[in-house]
Design brief:
Distance between the termini: 19 Å
Oligomer: single chain
Number of helices: 10
Strand order of the largest sheet: 1-2-3-8
Largest sheet: 4 strands, parallel
CATH architecture: 3-Layer(aba) Sandwich
Number of strands: 10
Order of helices and strands: HHEHHEHEEHEEEHEEHEHH
CATH superfamily: NAD(P)-binding Rossmann-like Domain
Radius of gyration: 18 Å
Strand content: 5-15%
CATH class: Alpha Beta
Helix content: 40-55%
Structural class: alpha/beta
Length: 274
């Protein structure tokens, strides 16, 4: 979902992009990662690869850690071997959600599910293996190339059924096209470190659903519910909203409001699914 937007954005910015996926090599296999990176000899690597099934990770913990921790370490070590910088994409789910205000990069992570724990382990692995790194934490990603909450809402709306959506979890709905542009900006300058990279503003899942339907000019019966009314295998943070102030201060860069991302997503999703 993210890589499909990152590659053309980087190409437009003047990079010569080598786009690869699982068919080319598995990042959890150290020798394969090292071999590919040595052959490509890149100036920089953007790692969008991850195990992202939050509920599935509860049952496939070993696989989640193999991809999200060991895979991240393999790519970072391969980058170090060829002198490349690494931009590694993490997640808001490294936080436990107990804070009442948006999290900054200085707040201590404390994941409450396997997925978040595996992604935090990946961050640590990258920091240990390579000094020339950017760790970028987005949140609540949605894009036209892949599964996402807004896409699910649009599909369910087509079925004409009333919907029940969680209204007591808060985050930053972040559009992959906006995120991709920010990542392209970050990687241009060696201001290494950890950054929160999210669309401006925050919302609940319920508020996000309403905005999706408003943007699509759809009338849908949506009832707000609590997370307790919609139990999932993995616990979700009650508040995983992130502050992107550091990105603004160091790069003079900020992403548009999340509603603008939803509007563009709906337009493009409808065109792709017409």
């Amino acid at each position: 979902m993210l890589g499909s937007d990152v590659c053309p954005v980087l190409a437009e910015a003047g990079w010569s992009v080598i786009a690869v996926d699982l068919a080319e090599f598995d990042i959890s296999e150290a020798a394969a990662a090292r071999r590919f990176v040595e052959d490509a000899s890149p100036a920089a690597i953007v790692n969008c690869a991850a195990y992202t099934d939050v509920d599935g990770a509860e049952d496939e913990e070993a696989l989640a850690f193999r991809v999200n921790e060991q895979g991240a370490r393999n790519i970072a070590e391969a980058a170090a071997a060829v002198g490349a910088a690494l931009l590694h994409v993490s997640t808001d789910y490294v936080f436990d959600g107990s804070k009442g205000t948006p999290y900054s990069e200085e707040d201590a992570p404390n994941p409450i599910n396997v997925y978040g724990a595996s992604k935090l382990a990946g961050e640590i692995a990258v920091r240990e293996a390579l000094s020339a790194h950017y760790i970028c934490r987005p949140a609540w990603l949605h894009g036209v190339h892949g599964k996402s909450f807004p896409a699910t809402m649009l599909r369910l709306a087509q079925e004409g059924r009333p919907l029940r959506v969680v209204a007591d979890q808060t985050g930053n709905p972040t559009y992959t096209r906006h995120l991709a542009r920010a990542l392209a900006t970050i990687i241009e300058r060696p201001l290494y470190g950890t950054y929160h990279v999210v669309n401006a503003g925050s919302a609940t899942w319920y508020e996000l659903a309403l905005e999706v339907f408003r943007s699509a000019d759809l009338t849908v019966d949506v009832t707000p519910i609590s997370a307790a009314d919609y139990p999932t295998k993995a616990r979700r943070p009650r508040n995983s909203a992130l502050s992107a102030g550091k990105l603004s201060r160091r790069y003079g860069c900020s992403l548009p409001h999340w509603r603008a991302g939803v509007a563009d997503f709906v337009r493009r999703w409808r065109a792709e699914n017409a």
